[in-house]
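Reopening this ticket.

The earlier resolution said the output was attached, but the attachment link was broken on my side. Pasting everything inline this time so it's all in one place.
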Amino acid sequence: MRHNKKINHLGRKSAHRNAMLSNMACSLILHKRITTTTAKAKALKMFVEPLITKSKDDTTNNRRVVFSYLKSKTSVSELFRDISPKIADRPGGYTRILKTGSRAGDSAEMCILELVDYNENMLAAKDDKKAASKRRRGTKKKADAPVASAAKKAVDTPVAKVEDAKVVEEAVEETPEVLVEETATDVAEETTTDEAEEKETKE
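Inline output:
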């Protein structure tokens, strides 16, 4: 029985196992994604995630500690310069295992181990899901637009008509005398023009 035996030795002695995990961690940091067996990926996940956590605090001591595991200056500088700002807000779980089936030769379970914040397709899909969840259930964007515009017209038009009617009533109430005078002058002008036309015809 293997009670409390969390470390998978991967059929190697400790020096060989540590060297292999160090090389795989450097490849993951530089390329952001590697293809390997599921057993190695799980062991690498336990190896590399504490190092990524250390990279959040960029100090000389942390750089030396990480270098003692990775043995690569290029990988250390990449981890502290590029990866740590991108994962600064993530409280753990920096890697993801995507299973890809069995290997043809020995039927070993294969997978892809990748850094979570560098898979652009999954990040885009996650943003789309967030945008869709903000809408109400059973509604669509295209259906909402004409309904909103029609509701807006229905609300706006009667108010405008009522306001126009009020303005006309106030104008009639305030200036009835002016309107009467204007109509009287119009009638007088029309009669004078009619009389002048009759005189011209008689002559």
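Reporter confirms the inline version is readable. Residues 1 and 162 are 87 Å apart (CA to CA). The chain has a mean pLDDT of 81.
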